[in-house]
Amino acid sequence: MPDTNATEPVPERGPLPSDLAPYLETLREVERHLYAHRYAKKTLDVLGPTIDPAAVTADRGEALAVLEEEDHDLVCSPELKGALDHLSEHDAELDETTRAQVRVLRRTQEEMTLVPAADQAELTRLTCEANDVWARAKRADDWASFEPYVDRLVALMRRMAHERDPRRDAYDVWLDHFEQGTSRAFYDDFFARVKDTVVPLLMDIRSKGYQPSRDCVEGRFDAARQWQLARDVAELEGVNLDAWWLTETEHPFSEAMTTNYAVTAAHVYEDDVTRNLYSMLHEGGHNSYEQGVDPSFNYTSLSGGTSAGMHEGQSRFFENYVGRDRAFAPHLLELLKRHFPGQMMRVTPQQFWLATNRVEPQPIRTEADELTYPLHVIIRYEIEQLLFSGEAKAADVPGLWKERYKGYLGVRVPNDRDGALQDSHWSTGYFGYFPTYALGGAYGAQLKDQMLADGVAWEDDLSRGDLTEVREWLRQHIWRYGRSKDPDELIRMACHTGFDPSHYTRYLDEKYRGIYGL
Amino acid sequence: MPDTNATEPVPERGPLPSDLAPYLETLREVERHLYAHRYAKKTLDVLGPTIDPAAVTADRGEALAVLEEEDHDLVCSPELKGALDHLSEHDAELDETTRAQVRVLRRTQEEMTLVPAADQAELTRLTCEANDVWARAKRADDWASFEPYVDRLVALMRRMAHERDPRRDAYDVWLDHFEQGTSRAFYDDFFARVKDTVVPLLMDIRSKGYQPSRDCVEGRFDAARQWQLARDVAELEGVNLDAWWLTETEHPFSEAMTTNYAVTAAHVYEDDVTRNLYSMLHEGGHNSYEQGVDPSFNYTSLSGGTSAGMHEGQSRFFENYVGRDRAFAPHLLELLKRHFPGQMMRVTPQQFWLATNRVEPQPIRTEADELTYPLHVIIRYEIEQLLFSGEAKAADVPGLWKERYKGYLGVRVPNDRDGALQDSHWSTGYFGYFPTYALGGAYGAQLKDQMLADGVAWEDDLSRGDLTEVREWLRQHIWRYGRSKDPDELIRMACHTGFDPSHYTRYLDEKYRGIYGL
C-alpha cells in the first residue's frame, strides 16, 4: 500500500457556531432541492439517448427546462445570496466541507445570476431536440439536417458567454466552464507542447515502415457476447456493479445520479471488439470516479467529479495507462478468450498488446490510438474557435473537417458520419469540452508518475490483474474530494507541484519509441 | 363506424375574459411546474422496480420526497388558492377545459392542504424502501422481512386519512382516493352482487365435472421469444410503439409520462406463455388509455387516466372482453404460432379459446380466470379493511390469506410468495386500490354493451383482428377526456345512464354457462 499519510483526510462536519445556524439552514434547504432536481435531470438526460422514444423529446425538453428554471430561482434567490455572503464573511468559523459548499455554490450563483433563466431553459430545450436530430443525422449520414442546430447552438452559447462576461472571449468562457482556470492561452500552450512531441514521433513512425499486426483482434464478434464482455471489463476494472446500470446508446457516455448509481451507456460493433473493450475501460473510469466520491457529499453541490478534465483524467487513465499497458494485456486477453474462445485461442499477450497500441491515423476519435488521439482533439478545438469567432458557419464544418484531418493526420474523411457527425458533443451543447480529453490524458500521466513515486507497485499489480492499490491511490487523492477541490488544487495536493504536461509528452515519447524501435 | 355525434367534442380553448388573465397566468405557471415534477417523478417511479440498482433506493426516495414537498408548496400556495377561488366564482366565463382544470386542481389542493407535506414525503420515502424490500421478500418467500413495512404503511396511511377527513373511516378515504365517489358501502353492495353471480356459478361448474384441457398452451417457452411476442401483442392491440417502452420487472405495471411516452414493465415466465400474453393485453389497455388522452392536456392536471377503476376498465377490457373472446382467439393463436411454431402447430382456435377460459381456482390473482378473479379482489378488500380497522396486524396476514383462499376459492396457498407476497401494491402504498380491478371489469362490460348498442361491429372486427373501431369508440367516449371528467360522469355520458354492474354479472353468467353447458 502507498503511504497516504501525506494526504489530509476529508474532514468530518463538526459543530458550527450557533449564530450561523439560520444561514446554514438556508444553505442546507437549497442543497436538498438542488439534489432532487439534479437526480431528476440526470436521470432524464440519461434516458434521452438510451431508452426514450423520439416522440417524447420535446416533452422531456420542457420538463428539463422547467427544472432548470427552478434551479435558477433557487440558486439566485436573495435569501441564498444573503446566506452565502454572510457565511463567506465567517469563512474561518466553518468546517472545511461547508466552506467548500459555500465556495462552489457562490460560483454557481455568480454564473447563473448573469445568464437569464430563459436562456438556460432555451439551451436545455434546444439540446434535447438537437441530440435527437444528431442521432438520426448520423445514422443517415446527413449533415444538412443537423447543420442549423450547430449555428443556433453557437449563437445561443455565444450570447450566454457574453452575459456571463462581456469582456471575455466567448470561447474562453466555455473552456473555463468545463475546466476551471483554462482558456485559449492555456490550451494553445499545452497543445503546442503536445504537437512538438506527437508530430515528429508520427513522422518517425511513418518513415520506419514497421507496423504491428492487428490480425489477432480482427473478425466478427457476436453482439450478445460483447455485452457480457462489457460487464466483465467493468468488473475487472473494479466498478461497483451493485450500484451500476449498463445500457445501450449511439455514442457511449457515462453519468451518475449519486455514489450509489453510476450509468454506462455503451455501443457494440460486431466488426470491432477492441472498440467495446477500450470504451468500457474508459467509461468505467468515469464510473469509478463518481462512485469514489465521499458519500456524505451525495446530497450537496460537492457531489460528482470536479471538472471535465479531471473526469477524463480518470477515464483515460483506465483506458490507456492501465488498459494499454503491457503488464495488463494478459488479463484483457483472458476476458476476450473467455467470450470468444475460438477466435482468440492462439493469440499471445504480446501480439494483443502490440495490436492495441498500433499507431495508425484514421478518422474516428474514439478509435484513435493514444498518440494520434490529441490531434483529433486539436482539430475540434480549432473548428470550435472558428465557429465561436464567427469566422466559420456550420455549413463550413464538413469542409474544414476534411481539410484538417488531411493536414494533421493525413487521413481522408470518407463521409460526415465518420467525420463531423461522429461525436454527440455539440448536439448537447458541449462546445469547449473536447480539449479536456487531451488535458485529462496529461493529468493521468502526471498522476501515474506520482503514484509510482508514492510506492504503488504498478507493474506487479497490473501483471496480477489487481487494481486495488491503484484505485485506492486515486480514491484517496482525487475521487473522494468530489467538487470540494478544483482540479489544479487536486493536482497540487496529490503531486506536490502544479500541472506539468511533460509527464504526458515524456510518456508518449518513451512508449512509442520503444514499440517502434526508434 | 359508430355514431359519435352524440358525444360532445373536447372543446378548443377560446379567448377568455381579460380581467381573469392574472389568475389564469398563476394557474398556467403552477401547471408548468407540476408537469415537470410529474414527468420526473413518474420516470423515477418507473425506474425503481425495473432498472435501478437496490443501492440507490434511499437516494431515489429522497429525491422523490423533495419533489413531493415542492408540489405541496406549489399546490397549497395562497396565490394559487386565491386564483382558483376567483376562477371558480367566474366559472361561467371559463371555457370547459379551464373549468375542468380549476375543478381538478382545487380537489388536489383540498386534499394536499389537509395532509402535512412531511407525511406525504414520509410515505414517498417509505414506499421506495418498502417496494425494494418487498421484491427481495417475494424472491426469498420471506414475509417476515416485509411485515414491519405493512404495519408502518397502514399506520401512516391511517394518519393521513384522518388528516384528510377526521370524521370519515380511514379505509373509505383511500377507496375514494383511488376511485372518486366510492366507499365501503359502495363496494359492499357491488361485491355482494358479484358474489351472488360468481359463487353459484362456481359451484355449478364444480358439480358439472367437465373441464376444457389446457394441454395445448402448456410447455416451455423461450424467454427471448416471449419478449418478441410481448411486443407483437402490444402492436396487435394497437398500442403506438413509437411512443412506448417495454421493460422488465418482477410485477408487471404500466405508466405514462405524457401521451408521447407510455411504458409497460412486464415479466416473462418460461413455463407459462399465456400469462405473458394476457398480461401484455392488460398493460396495453393502460397504455392505450394514456396515449389516447387529448394531447393538449399533456402539460396540465387533466393529463392521464381519470381514476384507477377507469384505468382498470380499459386494461381488463383488452385482457378479457377482447382477449378472451372466441372471435379474437385465432389472432392471438397466430402470434403464438409465429413465435413457437413447433409447439403450437396443431392447436385449433377453439382449443386455444377454451384453454384460456377454463375456470380453475388457484392462488395467483394475475393468473386467475375471469370468473374467479373478483374473489381474489374481495379477499384483499376484506384483509385491507381488517388492517385499517386495527382488527388485524401484518403478522396476521399470511394466516388470513390462507383461510380466505380456502373459504372463497377452496384453494390451498402453498407459501407466502404465492400468497400475501404475490402483489407489489401494498409496498407502494396502494391500499384501497384492489377493488378498482373488479370495478374496472364491470365498467368494461357496461362499455362493451354500449359499444354494441352504438353499432360497433364487434364480432366482425374481432374476427378480422381489427380493433380500430373498438379503440376509436373508447377514445371518443373515454380516453380523450383524461381527467377532465370523473368516472361516473364518463359512464353517464357514454352510456346515457349511471354505473350498472348487471352488465358484468350478466356477461359472466352467459359466458360461463355457455362454456360449461350449464
What does this structure look like?
The structure is a homodimer of 518-residue chains. Chain A has helices at 21-47, 57-75, 78-89, 96-114, 117-140, 143-164, 170-178, 184-208, 223-237, 273-292, 308-322, 329-339, 341-344, 349-355, 373-389, 397-409, 435-453, 458-464, 468-477, 487-495, 502-516, and strands at residues 244-248, 253-258, 261-266. Chain A has 518 residues and is mainly alpha-helical. The first copy, chain A, folds into two domains: 18-168, Methane Monooxygenase Hydroxylase, Chain G, domain 1, CATH 1.20.58; 184-219 and 307-516, Neurolysin, domain 3 (Orthogonal Bundle), CATH 1.10.1370. In chain A, β2 (253-258) and β3 (261-266) form a beta hairpin. In chain A, α11 packs across α17 and α15 (373-389) packs antiparallel against α16. The longest helix of chain A has 27 residues, at 21-47.
